């Protein structure tokens, strides 16, 4: 092999390695799925069971980003996530109306509860109406901790204050943490205040909190989760195939059965109730 041939061979080798690297990177990217979801699905421990099962079954590697539902949808609107698992129905509808999402599917529900210290300074224990409970908290000036993070829980809380005819923002007794559900519960426990939480996260952390469920059962406290794919037509780099695979996985019978059993062994009751295939109107949507 002369010098010219060796030079050509070396150049071809470099090109081949470069192309192989690009293809390898593309293949790796196509098997990575970015899931933007709520802190409640993370803090409850549900994703610790479902994500490894999905990865094993599908071959995808899931990068989970647990934030509030509002932040998750903001990521979706920028094409920074492939699939969302969220619980803020009104905001989700706006997300879909913008064309940011595709294939929105009902997955499960649980409920919100109002928790607080056992001494219950606002005397809300057993109150049937969440609006009435909020009025008592405001009237008594008792400390209320809000997530204040544009999450699904925060959106629900703001709707409850509005329904009670109370402007909580700016009041001395109303404090926003800007944190996820688990951290906000810890702050409420430390300061002996009230907060609104999904039942699953509360039960998962109950032993370390010293907070009690004081108000529950109001129909307005229903907490509904959907899985939504981010629209690849708007953001070509979105992993649409992976998003569909994850959505199919979440609404499949095997996973729905897992969801229905999750928490029973530890708490004596499920933390979530499977809803795939149900009509939205059956849940008041």
From TrEMBL:
InterPro entries: ABC-Tungstate_binding, PBP_domain. It comes from the Bacteria. Residues 1-28 form the signal peptide. Residues 26-252 form the PBP domain. Pfam families: PBP_like_2. Keywords: Signal. Transmembrane segments: none annotated. This is Substrate-binding domain-containing protein.
């Amino acid at each position: 092999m002369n010098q010219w041939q060796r030079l050509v061979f070396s150049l071809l080798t470099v090109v081949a390695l470069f192309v192989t690297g690009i293809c390898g990177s593309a293949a790796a990217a196509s098997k990575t799925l970015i899931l933007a979801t709520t802190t409640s699905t993370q803090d409850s421990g549900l994703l610790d069971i479902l994500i490894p099962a999905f990865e094993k079954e599908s071959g995808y590697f899931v990068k989970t980003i647990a934030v509030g539902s509002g932040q998750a949808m903001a990521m979706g609107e920028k094409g920074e996530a492939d699939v969302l698992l969220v619980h803020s129905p009104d905001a989700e509808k706006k997300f879909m109306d913008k064309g940011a999402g595709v294939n929105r599917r009902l997955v499960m529900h649980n409920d919100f509860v109002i928790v607080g210290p056992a001494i219950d300074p606002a005397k809300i224990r057993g109150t049937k109406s969440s609006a009435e409970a909020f009025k008592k908290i405001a009237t008594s000036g008792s400390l209320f901790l809000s997530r204040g993070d544009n999450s699904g829980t925060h959106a629900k809380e703001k709707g409850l204050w509005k329904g009670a005819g109370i402007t909580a923002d700016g009041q001395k007794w109303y404090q926003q943490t800007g944190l996820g559900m688990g951290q906000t519960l810890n702050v409420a426990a430390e300061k002996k205040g009230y907060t609104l939480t999904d039942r699953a996260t509360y039960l998962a952390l109950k032993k370390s909190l010293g907070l009690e469920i004081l108000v529950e059962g109001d129909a307005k406290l229903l907490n509904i989760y959907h899985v939504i794919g981010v629209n690849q037509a708007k953001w070509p780099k979105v992993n649409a195939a992976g998003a569909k695979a994850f959505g199919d996985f979440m609404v499949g019978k095997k996973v729905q059965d897992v969801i229905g059993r999750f928490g029973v062994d530890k708490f004596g009751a499920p933390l979530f109730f499977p809803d795939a295939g149900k009509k939205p109107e059956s849940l008041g949507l």
